[in-house]
Amino acid sequence: MLSITSQNFRSEVLGSKLPVIVDFWAEWCGPCRMLGPVFEKVSKDFAGKMTFAKLNVDTSPELAQKYDVRGIPCMIIFKNGKEADRLVGALSESILREKITSALRSP
Length: 107
Description:
This protein is of the alpha/beta class. It has helices at residues 9-14, 30-45, 61-66, 93-105, and strands at 2-4, 20-25, 51-56, 74-79, 82-88.
């Protein structure tokens, strides 16, 4: 699991050859804490196909603002340096898997 900050966002997310899903979260967010273990579990099954990253909105508020993250948890899938999909809320494991699979299939 990659930890994203303002310092490494460009290289690790926008410059990645693989699609990247970034979980915008915060320590104080209950739904974020519920999603954490699901995000971690799903990341293992998509290893080598997609990079999983977490970005704390309290320590990198400028990135949350830049990407118009208004509620957390919010997961943004980046492909080729551009936003490809956005998932908001504490999704179930099956829905998260379905959304990631769909994003990987789309051009």
